[in-house]
Fold these 2 entries.
Entry 1:
Amino acid sequence: MHMADALLSPQVAAVMYAASGTAAGISLSKLRKEDAENRSIPVMAVAAALVFAGQMINYTIPGTGSSGHMCGGMLLTALLGPYAGFLSMIVILTIQCLFFGDGGLLALGANVWNMAFYGCFIGYFFIYRPIMHSSLFSGRPEKSAVRSRLILASILGCIITLQLGAFSVVVETSLSGITELPFGAFAALMQPIHLAIGLVEGLITSAVLVFVYQSRPSLLRDVESSDASAQKSVKSVVAILAVFVFLVGGVLSLFASENPDGLEWALFGNSDAGYSENMGLDEEDFGIASNASETAGQIQENTSFLPDYSFKDSDSPAGTSVSGIVGSAMVALAAVGIAALGGYFRKKAFKG
Amino acid sequence: MNKIDSAISEFRQMDELASGNSPVHRLEAGIKLAVTVFYIICVVSVDKYRLSMLTMMIFYPLLMFQAAGLSMSGFFYKLRYVLPLVCMVGVFNPLLDTSPMMSFGNVSVSGGMISMLTLMGKGIFCLMASYVLVATTRFDSICAALGRAHVPRVMVTLMLLTYRYVSVMMQEVSVMSEAYALRAPGQKGIHISAWGSFLGQMLLRSMDRAQELYSSMLLRGFDGAFRYASGERAKTRDFVFLTLCLLSFAVMRFVDIPELIGSFFV
Amino acid sequence: MIEFKNVSFSYEIDVPVLRDISFTIEKGESVGLIGANGAGKSSLLKVLLGLLPHDGEISVDGILLETKNLPELRRRMGFVLQNSDNQMFMPTVFDDMMFGPLNYGMSREEAERKVDSVLERLELQSLRDKYNHKISGGEKKMASIATVLAMDPEVIIMDEPSASLDPYNRRAVINLIRSLEQTKIIASHDLDMILDTADRVILLSGGRIAADGRCRDILTDRFLLEHNRMELPLRFSESY
């Protein structure tokens, strides 16, 4: 779900930086209050490093031959709490951006928002904590009830926060005016794919959390139910989920109905192409791997049924002219010259 | 598992590159960071049909590559997974935006074609600029520069510590993956039955490690405040570089130089 | 001078880890702390460093070990962890070495001078700006000793300094330890290394002191060692 710099306009990027920056500021001040001696810094660093490394593990999905990965927002939240978890995710995303080219410097604010904010804050306050404190599964023995809540919270949390993240990618890209792909079609491409990714991530997260709960429950947030008065009813969970489903469903259907062509197009195109990751919003190693090699050909096949749409503004700013092309060609020539000369001198220096 | 091992070696390669010595390496980290961000903003904000303006922007990363002694092939190899995806972003444009923009004889070029090329160019240029930054600047220098720019110390320290442990953890994941693969031949990854215990085990060990690390900090006088050496400060040379870059990016961004050059000939 | 008076410690009630430990270590002494796995070596070190609580009385240079004196005491004691990766938590050797001195109030220039002089003394200048994740195990061990020396401790405490080092690096570490003039406490299973680095040995067994005496006396006492699940150092064993 990492967005590249080229996908965002500077304005949208700045807004996302401001939003993520605010969330980071709040997290820092909360952390300062909770932990004046910075005891949690080593734990945060080591957990972040582990999640970073853990993202590279292939988890085989039974019966599919493909493998899933995790992104870790919910996992860090359950371990460190929302504030420390959010800050750790920022660090992970920054290192990924710098060292692996996943996302870009300008898009970092947006990526932090899409991948860390939802997972940590929405995931914790609206999903993880309410579920862990609810009376769900209370008919079962204590341990088993907590386990079930953990599983439910992880799966729901990952699915919902990934949906929000994917939707934000669509909104941010559309607001930036980068791609000609209609909003509805784009959303219809992104959301179902991230449903599957979220489900797999949720399963992985729940497996890890259940393991930790069984071996060292003190590491997890909100699993000790000693405080009986804190228990909320099932209603609050259901209410939160209902609001969420209503919101997402409403927004999606609104866009879908405004743009039926786009939706149709997406569904049509989607049915026979492995589009999943090909939007450039997802590297192939996030989520379920798709067969990228087939895609290029399929996109070309799909061109045949595309009507002659024209989405371009009629009064767009001056386009490229012939003189522009001539000039560009000269620039390109100069660039090639510089590269060749540089290579020549480097080889020479190497020999000498 | 191949993936994690190649990540480890890429990580090391970047360190190796960043520890090199060239005029670009010697520039102060904060200045380089600022220039890179400004460059990306300039590139990204170019209008989607202004392909000619964009072409001029290649000079910054290109000259930096040369001055720093970075190889183009190294860049394309490292970003072999990311680049195609960046290029994919625009592939819908020619399909959806077919209004002709210009024509050579009877071949007409659509606006979508131009905007796709512009988008790809933007993607590649931004990646090149970021690559220049990371391949010529040590991570600890970037962190030190962030610290001087008043990024909260907790954040900077967290970055430093995480960076330190990323390679330790990747090593551990690699060892555990190998141990797993040796006992589970023919599996492409971790089977569902071991999903929880695989990462869970590592997590428990990591928490013990964090405890020990904290002890180590305490024993060296850590009292909750972070004090560390703050690295090199920017010199006149760095500010000259900054001014030159800002000026030339601004000119390239607002004046379509290639078109100007072309207009002399056409 | 380090003094333990009837020190005990337990993680859980009724499962004592250290029982009634008493000893005195004079300034400049080099003491080997030996014992089988679970004998209480690590716990004893952690108790001394104030990382674990204790019953009884511990004092260093006459200062009682209690919460309010911890910073003062820790400043006098340098601890070299068994796992250098846990000890060296900053990205570079230099940053790591600066961490302690800066925390103890040295100015940046002073601390940098100190770091450089320690590196020079240990002939490790080449490691100065290296990343900790890129240096070898042997270098990491030497560097982690250097981080501790940069704080100018009066007592150096080491947990298994020779563990997982190759013979060459092990020898280098032994030579380094021998060259240190500070009071030293070295916990290890590597009795040959203890023989080369310590003049006195404290043998722990089941959380108690089983023997305390001259290195040569204890490490040649086959019966005593084997009774406490240890073996004679290789150079004294008959098959050697």
Entry 2:
Amino acid sequence: MSGIPTLRSTPTEAAPTNPFLRWFMPEVPLARVAVFRVFIYLFIIIDVLTISGDVIAHGWTPEFYQPLWLARFLHIPAVSVLGAQILLTFIIVFSLLAAAGILQRLSGWAVALSFGAWMFYTQGYGYVAHDHMALVIAAFVLPTVGTARFRDVGTASARAGWALRVVQIAVVLTYFYSVVMKWIASGNITHWANGAVIIWALMRRGAEWSKPFLEMPGLLIAAQWATLVFEFLSPVALFLKGKWLYGAVAFFFVFHLMTYLALGIHFLPTVICWAAFLPLEKLVPKRFTSMGTA
Amino acid sequence: MEEKKRRLLTSQDPAAQGPDPAPSSASRTGEPGSDKSGSDRPGTGPSARSKLSTPVKPLSKVSIGWRIVVPAVAFVILTCGQFLNTNDFFPLGSLTQYATAKDLNGTVNSTCIEAQFPGEDEPRRLGFNAATVGIERGDVESQLDRVIAHPELLQSMADSYIRLHPDEPKPETMVLCRTTTQLKNGLAVGEPEQTTLAKWEVR
């Protein structure tokens, strides 16, 4: 008996025979990945131009470079302004190609590697933000799917299902492990929940309209407890279906909208990856699909 | 064999075959969008397989194997990153943002950067961000001890400011400062106090 369960080989698709594999590598329409890919690659362009756009400025401050482990292992030096501009151009060009579905595997890997390098240069100067975890993972798993087109609404793929599932897991772990970290860093999770973290954040970077909440510490403590609860429960999203799943995704969207309006913390790189939970192939107009053209 | 012969004779793409006798796993696993009618599901209706569809090869044992092993290793690294409390394994480091508990009767510190310009009486507060001084506040706060021990690092911020603001006067002194607000039961008490952490005469 083979240690690794195999996929049943049929002329049309491979169906996992093991319940875990059926969950971990579900067959989903390739078109879902084609649409998700557009979301991710276009967002990467926005990201490198805005959210992680500090890399070019980091070219002026090489003394602050604190390379992360992989950057040290690969001997990646501090970025120069010219180097950052070349890298930026590279990312934008290949992201556009990948989003357009041109040379999909090649352009996808080119984005993954160049965006990975860009991440070393935005996160390697002291502060490491954890909102990019799922996005970086998405950039690396998408090229493994291979060719996926909008017309592939009727073509199921376990490769596509695996890539999306990995992104989904990365998304929920971003929340779940942040609870674990709060527990570890605080010693006692109630210290965090009953403490002044939101007060601290509002004082440091809160919007003017949110300043009155500083007069209501009880409300902010309640918000901390609520945050803990839904971050802890976030893995449940992996098993939700239909309206419950849509509701969960909408809930996290609203949560991040609120933190953005109040604190300027948008978490958009993670927010965009919530799209991996959705049946994105439904966005493809019928006339572009296999079924529409058959 | 018979199936292969038939495909060769009809020149049919493997992805353009007839209906799969087994139900799609998308419907079995309750994937979003799997609540469609049978003919609308992948591989369940004759019309669902046009020649325009991308052919899908079954996953080999090797393909399945690395798709299990690589995420498992990543999961272990991510988990270790939490318990070792290190960001060094980015993107699989610890998720430390806002993870530290804050005392309702403690203080709220915020690091600031100021510059003394020629002809001005007081140092002026600058935006502590990459667009102004080439680096974000969070980056400097993450290596604050190092910056205080080596105030010459402020020269780099002054140089960035000059390059990023070529039409502005050149700063004479850079001041790394901190504002501290005292809390009592979660409410701010009094005005924030400012202290100087490091000073550097710009060369």
